[in-house]
Design a protein that fits this description.
Elements lengths: L1 H13 L10 E4 L4 E9 L7 H26 L8 H7 L1 H12 L2 E8 L2 E9 L6 H5 L29 E5 L13 E3 L4 E3 L6 H7 L3 E3 L12 E5 L2 E3 L4 E4 L1 H14 L7 E4 L1
Parallel strand pairs: 5-9, 5-12, 6-11, 8-12
Antiparallel strand pairs: 1-2, 2-4, 3-4, 6-7, 10-11
Helix pairs in contact: 1-2, 3-4
Length: 267
C-alpha cells in the first residue's frame, strides 16, 4: 500500500495538482460504481495555453486516481472488513486493486476557472471490478438452511411463486457492504456469499441497494417483501423474524430466487 502512495505522491508533485479545493469521491451503491473527481491547475507559466491545458488534465487525472484510491480503500466488503484491510494483508490483492485503479474510466471532464476537473469511476462488480480484485472464491458452496420445523412458516398466497426478495430496512440506518448476510432473530444465517455461485456474485453482486420499490426491479415482478426487525454487525446485516425467515426459505424452495441473487435491500 505504501508503494501506491509513493507513486502517486511523486506524480502529484510533478504534475502540479491543485490543492486546497475539495474534490468529490464517493461509492455509488445505487449504480454499483465508485466515483472520484480530481482537479488540476492550469500552469500560468506554460509555454502555450494548450500545453497548460494538457498538463492540467494530466494532473486532474492523477488527482482523481488518488481520490479514487482513497475511496476504494474505504469500501466495506463485509461488515467487519474494508478494502484497505485486504490490501494491507495481501500483496496479491494490492496488485489487483492497482490494476482496477489503472483501468478507471473517465466519465466527466470540464474546464473550470483556472483548471480542469475530471471524474473517474470503477465498477464494484463485473469484469475488472473491485469485487473481482478482493473477493476470494469460497472453498465450497453451503446449501441454504431449511425452514425450522418447530416454527411453521406463515401461510402464503401467491400465484406462480415469488420472483425475488426485498428486505425493507428503511429508517434503520443501513450500511451498504459488498458481501452482506441476512440473519433471523435466532441467529441463523439464511443468505450469504457462502451459499452462492462465486462467479455470479462477482458478475452481479449479492444484492441491490435502493431507496424505494421503484429501484427493486432485480427482485422481479412479484417479490416477497419482508420488513427487517433490526440491523446487526455495524448496521450492515438485516435481521428478520424466524417466521419471516421460514417464509423466505419455503418460498425459495419453489422459486429459487436466493440462488439467483434476486435480492434487494431498501435503505
Amino acid at each position: 500500500m505504501k508503494r501506491i502512495f509513493q507513486i502517486f505522491g511523486l506524480m502529484l508533485a510533478a504534475l502540479f495538482v491543485l490543492t486546497g479545493i475539495k474534490a468529490e469521491a464517493a461509492p455509488d451503491w445505487n449504480n454499483r460504481v465508485v466515483k472520484a473527481t480530481g482537479i488540476g491547475v492550469i500552469n500560468p507559466n506554460a509555454r502555450t495555453h494548450a500545453q497548460g491545458i494538457a498538463m492540467a488534465r494530466r494532473a486532474a487525472i492523477t488527482d482523481a486516481q488518488r481520490n479514487l484510491l482513497e475511496t476504494l480503500q474505504g469500501v466495506q466488503v463485509t461488515s467487519e472488513v474494508t478494502v484497505r484491510d485486504y490490501i494491507t494483508e495481501s500483496d496479491i490483492i494490492q496488485t489487483r486493486v492497482e490494476g482496477v485503479l489503472k483501468g478507471a474510466e473517465i466519465i466527466g471532464e470540464r474546464e473550470i476557472s483556472g483548471g480542469i476537473e475530471i471524474t473517474m469511476q470503477v465498477p464494484m462488480f463485473g469484469a475488472s471490478s473491485l469485487a473481482e480484485a478482493v473477493m476470494e472464491r469460497p472453498a465450497e458452496v453451503v446449501p441454504f438452511p431449511a425452514p425450522t420445523a418447530e416454527v411453521p412458516a406463515p401461510p402464503t398466497s401467491y400465484s406462480g411463486g415469488y420472483t425475488g426478495l426485498v428486505i425493507d430496512c428503511r429508517g434503520l440506518g443501513l450500511n451498504p457492504v459488498m458481501s452482506p448476510v441476512i440473519k433471523n432473530s435466532a441467529g441463523t444465517k439464511i443468505y450469504g456469499h457462502i451459499n452462492l455461485d462465486y462467479d455470479l456474485v462477482i458478475r452481479d453482486g449479492m444484492v441491490n441497494y435502493a431507496p424505494d420499490m421503484s429501484g427493486a426491479a432485480r427482485a422481479g415482478s412479484n417479490p416477497l417483501v419482508i420488513r427487517a426487525e433490526r440491523l446487526e454487525d455495524h448496521n450492515a446485516n438485516p435481521v428478520i423474524s424466524v417466521n419471516d425467515s421460514n417464509m423466505v426459505l419455503s418460498a425459495n424452495e419453489t422459486g429459487g430466487f436466493l440462488g439467483r441473487m434476486a435480492v434487494v435491500f431498501l435503505y
